Amino acid sequence: MTVSDASAGTPANGAPPSDRAFDYYGYRLYWVARFLLVFAIQVLSVSVGWQIYDLTRDPFLLGLVGLVQFLPAPILVLVTGSVADRLNRRIIMASCMAVEALCALALLTILHQGLTAVWPVYAVLLVFGIARAFMGPAVQSLMANLVPQTALANAIALNSSSFQVATIIGPTAGGLLYGVSSELAYVVSILFFLSAGVLTLLIPKPEKRASQPVTTEALFAGFRYIWSQPIVLGALSLDMIAVMLGGAIALLPVFARDILDVGPWGLGALRSSVGVGALLMSLWLINNPVRDHAGLTMFAAVAVYGLAIVVFGLSTLVWLSVLALVIMGAADMVSVFIRQTLIQLKTPDDLRGRVSAVNMTFIGASNELGEFRAGTMAAGFGAVPAVVIGGVGALLTAAAWARMFPDLRNVRHLDRMN
């Protein structure tokens, strides 16, 4: 089934296919469910962070929270993508949301009983990470089944905007809820997970896909497909390398305290600047999608991303640093928007789960490696050189990839690729 064959992608009034994703009932349910899901994850992440630090007062153990949740994705990448391509994606999503609600309930129970051992928390987070690993490819793949090709770019922009809103407001809401009552924060996350699961089950069932035998060849089909498609390989690897080099976010505490001298409130402003830039750009893309020269636009966005990192690294002015981070977030959003659209359009539906699993794992790994690169270089050469070198590296990567992947560079209209 191609994107244009989406069984749930027919407007309720029987009109010709619309380019507005919200015109499709199934997508509206999906969008609300996904927003509630991301919001719940943000609230839970803040609550777990407070809970771990209250128990241990150990920053190292606090840092393990993200790692424990990330590790299942690369370990299970061959399985999670295959499951998303073989089974009902709505059921996968709803089941994983139910597991996440149970994990939140387990964390609430640990908190309520006053347990001082930290290993039960990490055990629950590992299960939570496994659920997220299975849910991610299903979430990414289902979207293309709910809207026709003409509305896919708009759907991706709407997804990006809701994600940014949830990631900006969610941590703040989680902190406020935890401040009022630690139990309340977990209860809210549980209710949001369950609500998202119910909405997911209400999404109209897409057309049934042909079943595939489970073979070694099928498990590795996502990797082989990416390698055989220069446009997909170029878009994925360009974003992965740029993210790995752009590890400035990990060093924001250093810049806030030692270079800009703005303190904790200034650090909050710096951290939110990237999200604000991404949100503003995603809102712009909802009504003004990239209509021509998509490949060149993607390379230009990565170049601007790298340049903004360089400016931030060299800046000693607070306003200039904030502006650079806003531009960095906006440029990254353009790159992400084009990459996601290209991958969705170029990937057959029977491979979309496996390709999405590889894509999400590579991006997650590059985030982890990016923070490691930035921290290691900062320890050896200082924070400013670490950030500036990363920004220059992103600029050089954009130039090199533009030469190495001419098919990607020459992509023009995102809505005319199939």
Key terms for this structure?
single chain; 418 residues; mainly alpha; Growth Hormone, Chain: A; 18 helices; globular; disordered N terminus
Give an overview of the whole structure.
This protein has 418 residues and is mainly alpha-helical. It has two domains: 212 residues, MFS general substrate transporter like domains (Growth Hormone, Chain: A), CATH 1.20.1250; 197 residues, MFS general substrate transporter like domains (Growth Hormone, Chain: A, Up-down Bundle). Helix content is 79%, strand content 0%. It contains 18 helices and no strands. Helix 11 packs parallel to helix 14 and helix 13 packs parallel to helix 15. It is globular, with a radius of gyration of 21 Å. It starts with 24 loop residues before the first helix and ends in a 9-residue tail after the last helix. The N terminus is likely disordered.
SS field, number of helical segments: 18
* Main sheet: strands, sense, barrel: none
Distance linking N and C termini: 12 Å
Shape assignment: globular
Question: What's the count of strands?
Answer: 0
The CATH architecture of the largest domain would be Up-down Bundle
Helix-residue proportion: over 70%
Average of the residue pLDDT scores? 85
SSE order, one letter for each helix or strand: HHHHHHHHHHHHHHHHHH
Strand content: under 5%
The CATH class of the largest domain turns out to be: Mainly Alpha
Number of structural domains: 2
Structural classification: mainly alpha
What is the CATH homologous superfamily assignment of the largest domain? MFS general substrate transporter like domains
Q: Could you name the CATH topology of the largest domain?
A: Growth Hormone, Chain: A
Integer-rounded radius of gyration: 21 Å
Low-confidence stretches: 1-9
